[in-house]
Amino acid sequence: MARMDSYVEYTLELLEPLGPVQARRMFGGWGLHHAGRMMGLIIEDRLYLKTDDTSRPTFEAAGGEPFVYDAAKGRKVTTSYWTPPSDVSDDAHALLPWARRAVEASLRAAQKQKKPAAKKKPAPAKAKTATPKKKPAAKKSSRRA
């Protein structure tokens, strides 16, 4: 396993009030996992927390910034991971509500994935065309007059 750098270790200490959080090396950074779900990223010594349509406006209003990376052909991709407000970055107590929002967003994302696909309505049964049964041929009388 890759050795964690001091910023990752420090961030895990800050997140201890949330409960067990594991850091896993990924794509030049670290994925942060709580209860088996990814709830954060650390890229270039910067913490990003998972957001969704429910929580993103709160992060945005607090001055957070999304994690954006360069994709193929010069295209930029904005992810659902946002920085918490800068004034909470060194205070576990102040960071806790932001980390909880990230965990909640990861739970909502997991629930969306578990929803069964809309069931297709069965096609209406085709009307069966009855094939007429052949009538047995009439027996010819073998009586002779």
UniProtKB/TrEMBL annotation:
Pfam families hit by this protein: TfoX_N (PF04993)
Region (Disordered): 106-145
InterPro entries, sorted: TfoX-like, TfoX_N
Domain TfoX N-terminal: 13-105
Superkingdom, taxonomy of origin: Bacteria
Biased composition (Basic residues): 111-123, 131-145
Protein name: DNA transformation protein
Organism this protein belongs to: Archangium gephyra
